[in-house]
Amino acid sequence: MLICRTERPGDGDEIDELVCAAFGREQEGDLVWALREQGAISMSQVAEYEDAIIGHLLMSPILIEGEDTGWLALAPISVWPECQRQGIASALIIAALDCANELDWAGVVLLGDPEFYGRFGFKPAQDLGLSLKSEAASTGEILLAMAFKPPVAKGRVTYHPAFG
Ligand SMILES: CC(C)(COP(=O)(O)OP(=O)(O)OC[C@H]1O[C@@H](n2cnc3c(N)ncnc32)[C@H](O)[C@@H]1OP(=O)(O)O)[C@@H](O)C(=O)NCCC(=O)NCCS
Q1: pLDDT tens digit string along 54-68?
Q2: Which 3 state secondary structure label does DSSP give 7?
Q3: For the residues 95-109, what does the mean pLDDT come to?
Q4: Which of 82, 104, 100, 103 is nearest to 92 (CA)?
Q5: What is the 52 CA–ligand 1 centroid distance (Å)?
Q6: pLDDT digits (tens, 9 = 90+) for 32-90
Q7: Which residue lies with its CA nearest to atom 46 of ligand 1?
Q8: Count of domains forming the chain
Q9: From the CB of 155, is ligand 1 less than 6 Å away?
Q10: Which of 34, 64, 70, 155 could form a disulfide with 106 if both were Cys (CB 3.0 to 4.6 A apart)?
C-alpha cells in the first residue's frame, strides 16, 4: 500500500538518492540538503511503498513583497523514475495540500505546468496578484498559486535564497 507521510529523521539520504535519480542530476538533491541545513523546510512529505521511499515533495517559505505572510513554495517534487505515471506525485500533492491547509498556512505557489497542476486547483498566480521576478517562460512553466484563506497577499514572490 502507498503511504504518504512526513519525512522522519534518518530519511535524508534515501530522499537525496530519490531526488537525484528523478532529476538525473545532483542540483535538486543539493537544494533539498541546503534547505534542510538552513532550517527552511516547512513541509517534507514522502510516498512510501513497502518500506521504500519512492516519492518526495518539499515546501519552503516564501516572501511576498518581502513579508512572511504564511505562504509556501512547493518544490521540488520527485518520483523514482520506474514508478512515474502511476499517480504517486498526484497522491503526494493532494496529501501535502490537505496538510498545509490543516496547518493553517495561507497558500502555496509553484512553478509548473498549468494543465497538470490545474487538476489540483492551482490557478495562474497572476490571477491572485502574485508574480515572480523571472519565470521560465520558455518551458511553459508559470507561477501557479492556491490560496487557503483570504485576504490574499499580493505582490512579488521571493523564493528562499537556497533556490539561487
Ligand atoms: C514530475 C513528476 C514528479 C510526476 O510524477 P508522477 O508520479 O509520474 O505523476 P502522476 O503519475 O501523479 O501524474 C502523471 C501525469 O501528470 C502529467 N505530468 C506530470 N508531471 C508533469 C509536468 N511537469 N508537466 C506536464 N504534465 C505532467 C503526466 O503527463 C501524467 O499524465 P498522464 O499519465 O495522464 O499522461 C515525475 O515525473 C518526476 O519526478 N520528474 C522528474 C522531476 C521533476 O521534473 N519534477 C517536477 C519539477 S519540481
Answers
A1: 999 999 999 999 999
A2: coil
A3: 97
A4: 100
A5: 20
A6: 999 999 999 999 999 999 999 999 999 999 999 999 999 999 999 999 999 999 999 99
A7: 77
A8: 1
A9: no
A10: 70
Contact 56, 45 (CB under 8 A): yes
Q: What's the rounded Cα separation, in Å, for the pair 77 and 3?
A: 16
pLDDT reported for residue 90? 98
Q: How far apart are CA 15 and CA 69, in angstroms?
A: 28
CATH number, domain of 21, equals 3.40.630.30
3-state per-residue secondary structure call for 131-152: EECCCCHHHCCEEEEEECCCCC
Residue 96 has pLDDT above 70, yes or no: yes
Q: Return the residue whose CA atom lies nearest to atom 21 of ligand 1.
A: 116
Q: What would the mean pLDDT of 9-25 be, rounded to a whole number?
A: 98
Separation of 83 CA from ligand 1 center, angstroms? 11
Domain that holds residue 35: 2-163
pLDDT tens per residue, range 130-140: 999 766 556 78
